Hints:
By secondary structure, the chain is of the alpha/beta class.
Amino acid sequence: MNILVLNWQDLANPQSGGAEIHLHEIFGRLARRGHTVTLLCSGWPGAAARAEADGMRIHRTGGRNTFSLAAPAYYRKHLAAAPWDVVVEDLNKVPLFTPYWVRRPLVLLVHHLFGATAFREASVPFAAATWLLERPIPRVYRGLPAQAVSESTADDLAARGLRRSDLRVIHNGVDLEFFSPNPFVARFPEPTFLYVGRLKRYKRIDLAVEAVALLRARGTHVRLRIAGRGDEEPRLRAQVERLGVGDRVEFDGFVTEERKRELLRSCWGTVLPSPKEGWGIANVEAGACGTPAVAADSPGLRESVVHGQTGLLVPYGDAGKLADALASLAADPALVARLGAGGRRFAEGLSWDRAADLTQAHLAEVAGRG
Length: 370
């Protein structure tokens, strides 16, 4: 197949995250299988206009805030004449409204929609713009074949007006060889928990910091490692200082995949307290390493964590309940081991090869109809 993918960013972008990992893991595999994959995405200062990665040809145009305007013009000038078998809009951030300017066959791929959660991250004008841009999705994309990375996202799309029969759920995968337990890597001697990912306000990392402070007040001492970078870091550092837990919370900054794996193997659990995720890939990576996850019982996350089997789910926004969950793991290394083993078993059913197989079959089906 000759496949064109449109996404806001590629993995080399400094702002890349889970959606870009998914993009490269899935479509990189399709490229290596012999399919021709071209990616149209945004650039950043100093980025090359053309590149190649994971077998994909990459075209960059516009920037983080201008890509939705630059992409249609670039497509018409450079890409519209190519014989695409299928075009995929990887909806990340805000929709590109491709049905208005891309010829079909067209597939919509959705990680998650922000909805009202946009107001937890951005300023009111930007949050309102995101919320408003999501409103036309049912009218613009209704009738198109679509992929969702979780049942929660599919339910959200259906609730907004897309036909459930058009939605195919294909869960994210995990690299089971790279993310794996290592019996020679010991856990930290003191109960230590890890947040790994972008430091964004809507991720609600502040709840994890608050939970550490609550536990300290109860006389239960745990540590929190925060690995990642983002514009929420100054606020988090100020919160740590205000709550007096500077000796309990450590900022690791950006970490390589190898360092992330080392932390996942060494920590007693991961923490992801956000109100909404497409899937929660960090939870599954932790499980693959034999480490349980503690996460909010929120859309997406409740699918990547099986409560009592691979980790613990707590009510979103409740720092006290989050503290209770961390305390239960801190007091019971056997529970950590049991949930970690369950996490590995769960992850073993979620390989990237499986996700790529299902994606390839769906795209071939759509291309055949087209």
